[in-house]
Amino acid sequence: MKFDVLIVGAGGAGLYAALEAAKNAKDLKVGVLTKVYPTRSHTGAAQGGINAALANIDPLDTPEAHAFDTIKGSDYLADQQASKFLCEKAPEVIRELEHMGTPFSRLNNGKIAQRPFGGASHDRTCFSADKMGHVMLHTLFEQCLRYNVEFINEWFMLNLVHNGERVQGVTAYDIKTGKTEFIQAKSVILATGGHARIYWGYTSNALGCTGDGTAAALRAGIPLKDMEFLQFHPTGLRRSGVLVTEGARGEGGHLLNNKGERFMSKYAPSKMELGPRDLVSRSIITEIREGRGWKDAEGRGYVHLDLTHLGEEKIKQKLPQIRELAIDFEGIDPIKEPIPIKPTAHYAMGGIDTNVKCETVIKGIYAAGESQCVNVHGANRLGGNSLLDIVVFGRVAGEEAIKFARENDFAAGGEEKLKDDNAFLQSLFDKENTESLADIRDELGHIMYNHFGVFKDEKGMQEGKEKFLKLKERAKNLAVQDKSKIFNTDLISLLEFQNIMELAEVLIETSLARKESRGSFSRDDYPTRDDENYLYHSMVTLENGELKLGKSEVDISLYEPAERKY
Amino acid sequence: MANILIEIQRFNPETDDKPFMQTYEVSEEILKGMTIFDALAYIKDKIDPTLTYRAFCRSAICGSCAMKINERAKLACKEQILFHVRNGKVVIKPLENAKIIRDLAVDVDEALEKLKKLKPWLEADPKKVPDSIKSESLVLPEEFAHYDHMTDCILCMACYGMCSAEKADSNYAGPFQFTKALRFIKDSRDGVDIDERVQLCVDNGLWDCVQCQMCLAACPKGITPADDIQELRRYAIASGDDSMGAKRATTWFRDVFATGQIDKFDLPVNAKGDTKAREEMEKEFRERGIPEERFRPQPFDGIEGLRKFIRKVEEEVN
Q1: Are residues B141 and B225 both part of a single domain?
Q2: Of B216, B238, B260, which residue constitutes the final position of a domain?
Q3: Are B36 and B22 in the same domain?
Q4: Which chain A residue shows the shortest CA-CA distance from B107?
Q5: Which of A271, A299, B188, B215 could bond to B175 as cystine, CB 3.0-4.6 Å?
Q6: pTM of the complete model
Q7: Contacts of B155 in chain A (CB under 8 A)
Q8: Are residues B220 and B125 in the same domain?
Q9: Predicted pLDDT at A195
Q10: Cβ(A481)–Cβ(A490) under 8 Å?
């Protein structure tokens, strides 16, 4: 296969880039490679909405106000001009989505409806009931069908191939047949999503959110940025990590420990269960750590979100979806029993380092979406900004990759990389297996959650790092047990696991290096923000098998960093 | 606690001539609180790494894990396994009406190709949708309500896997495909001629649906393809569709309104233009000595009541 523009990943960012190319670059051959099918992508799971200062409800809202909220929410780690660009583009991108057929919820005057959201100074979040990501993803897919976008479904990208300066293509594995191929491309867009799966067993993310593109970029010598910043949500279901929205607490749900106490009275006596997300998460973890929670069969701690006192009528009337979720996914009816919950890893702010044009350090390689880090979200992303990010930068990446492909020919060579990758895959089949992938993967989740999760301090992280390094040794013994060439999900799971292992190590190193608390990143031993020493983006590059840490400047040209208070 | 038997259909085209059932035994204690997906993952992790299925979001939104659970198409991630235990076992098979790739993973491409034939996308109507991204089209909440629930479809293929018409004729477009077609007919922003959209549906089997209603039970999102197909058929008749299916439907309606019964004597002519069948029937009737006024049904006593009822239903539908 050979493409002028190859897009890897078919979520919101990938599909937006693909549409940009299909509509405006009919002279180019464009392909979208995905390890699933486009509409399976995790974009579809986003519920709440997408931010844009349309001012349909609040006439005083402006893109500047949106930018300021985003920068303040980022705890001043966002690149301010980039955040401003994101927010300025928001209204037109929303209208473009609307013109394509996205079914937004509407106001009585027919305009797109908007609602309030955390951290936003105006009612700015456009929505479609509680399925914004789903309808957006499907609308983009529909338009891709309309414009005959070429999809390469159920192919797994193995590696990026470049000559040190320019991209040559990618190597990829066809899941349905087991064959591998070097795919030549003039430009490549990585739109491969986030990597919260490094907290295996403790995440709201889909099984495949394993940062495949981010890890491939790292292996290809491209820097990753701000990887220590990963957002947690306080109430995920015990078993699956699927989110139970704040609505449950808003309607009067109680958080209880194993003594039956409403423990939030100790941590946030006035706001109780409705304290800020990070505080609620930290309180839950404290209870579990101090033995006042429960443990499931896999050793994962949890507490109770109790709705039983609200009564059958109120639960059925006000919280029907939460009830359905608990019954379907957890087997528990909240009318009769409390819901077991735990904080859950939700969104990665960090990712592949790019500038605002989505360019990486290698010419012809672009990144967009959750896999990318400009960084517009800084240390903490606001709700409703992730769907916005993927479409705005999906479009930019599409435009830039088209331009590059028009101005440049294919870079010669790169086929030889396939030999290495084939040999590597073969070695996974040939090795004798002495470890269980499921056990090691669970162990990775435990280490990351307990040592690099909601709570962090030097001692805990050092212990965690030691455990991780031992696990890394054990992981070398993992092999593929299913020997079939056809739809070998055992192999894919192992490749995905190797990607999250690589990214976990990056997160470990960057977390240890940042001795402050900022946004989603909080350390007990350094509980405050330290702009004097740590107002920088952390950069990590893989050089000769070693992780090299560096820094890059944060753009604070618009607003002076101030204390983040709400 | 007892052990539960999980019977799973296996098939790897590399090694197997045909699908076979394999039984895994897992204790009820372990399965408590698990979804079918959790149980499959447990088997893959702990018992048999070759077991093959698709799964992704685990929260019933990505549509990857539709399969047959005790012969009914469901999303594996949305069903508690113990709820589906019958006589100590649960039977899990791949969706029907699609080629098996391996074990529980089936081909998706064919169903998507059929979807594509129905133009499942919006082409903006310039009268409604502004040509610049400086403003948005106005859609009243009541306009949106006409198709809001149809946009819940996650393309999981559960309805497709249970569809009787699909089983009878693999050229039939399929249930979710028709719902998608109706969704765009209903969208006030769409500029494609409704007759064109309806004709695409007619060309792809709109009249082949047998209204078995299996899709209604299968849909994990509560979407109603069988009803949507009925509505598309009304559009087809209104747009002057004269295909066999439309003729049959209009003839039935006319007959029932006239007499309370279907006129089987004239039906082949009215619906198919088939005069031979009627000739044979007529010959048979005459041989048996049936008088000619009884060849066709006559209105029954109280037909006015029925007509009143039909008119009332018509009013409500319109």
Answers
A1: yes
A2: B238
A3: yes
A4: A176
A5: B215
A6: 0.95
A7: 37, 39, 138
A8: yes
A9: 98
A10: yes
Number of domains making up chain B: 3
Provide the chain B residues 121-160 that lie in CB contact (below 8 A) with chain A.
121-124, 129-130, 133-141, 144, 147-148, 151-155
Same-domain check for residues B211 and B253: no
How many Cβ atoms from other residues are within 10 Å of residue A31's Cβ? 21
Spell out which residues of chain B touch residue A111, defining contact as CB-CB under 8 Å: 136, 138
Q: Which amino acid is at B113?
A: E
Instruction: Tell me which residue has tokens 């960093």.
Output: A561
3-state secondary structure A142-173: HHHHHCCCEEEECEEEEEEEECCCEEEEEEEE
Give residue A313's pLDDT band: very low, low, confident or very high (50, 70, 90).
very high
Mean pLDDT by 10 residues, chain B (318 residues): 94 97 97 96 97 97 98 97 97 98 98 98 97 95 96 98 96 98 98 97 96 96 97 95 90 92 88 87 92 90 94 87
Q: Are A173 and A195 in contact (CB under 8 A)?
A: no
Token readout for B199 is: 């004709």
Residues A169, A165: Cα–Cα separation, whole Å: 12
Same domain, B94 and B55: yes
Question: What's the domain range around B70?
Answer: 3-105
CATH number, residue B122: 1.10.1060.10
Among candidates A325, A330, A438 on the partner chain, residue whose Cβ is nearest the Cβ of B45 = A438
Residues B173 and B225 reside in one and the same domain: yes
Annotation: CATH topology of A233-343 = Flavocytochrome C3; Chain A, domain 1 (3.90.700)
Give the separation between CA A18 and CA A141, rounded to whole angstroms. 10
From the list A197, A249, A277, A518, the catalytic residue is A277
ipTM of this predicted complex? 0.95
Measured distance CA(A386)–CA(A349) in Å, rounded? 9
Do A142 and B120 make contact, defined as CB atoms within 8 angstroms? yes
**Mutation for A interface: B139, B155, B187, B200, most A CBs within 10 A:** B139
Residue-wise pLDDT for A316-327, tens only, equals: 888 888 898 899
* Tokens, residue A76: 């001043």
Residue ranges of the domains in chain A? 1-45+139-229+349-566, 233-343
DSSP class of residue A483 equals -
Residues B100 and B115 in one domain: no
- Residues linked to residue B7 through DSSP beta bridges, in sequence order: B23, B91
Q: Write out pLDDT tens, residues A320-351.
A: 888 988 999 999 999 999 999 999 999 999 99
Structural element, H or E, at residue A289: helix A277-289
Residue listed under structure tokens 């569709």: B241
Q: Does B225 lie in the same domain as B120?
A: yes
CATH class of A1-45+139-229+349-566: alpha beta
Q: Decide which of B105, B130, B162 is a domain's last residue.
A: B105
Q: Which two tokens stand for residue A379?
A: 């240390």
Q: Tell me if A146 sits within 8 A of A21, measured CB to CB.
A: no
Tokens (6 digits) for B42: 């447990």
For A113, left (φ over 0), alpha (ψ -120 to 50), or beta? beta
DSSP A454: S
User: Cβ(B138)–Cβ(B129) under 8 Å?
Assistant: no
Cβ pair A298, B1 in contact under 8 A: no
Give me the residues of A, 228-287, that contact B with CB < 8 A: 239-240, 242
Interface test with A, best of B103, B136, B147, B200 (most A CBs within 10 A): B136
The letter for the amino acid at B176 is: F
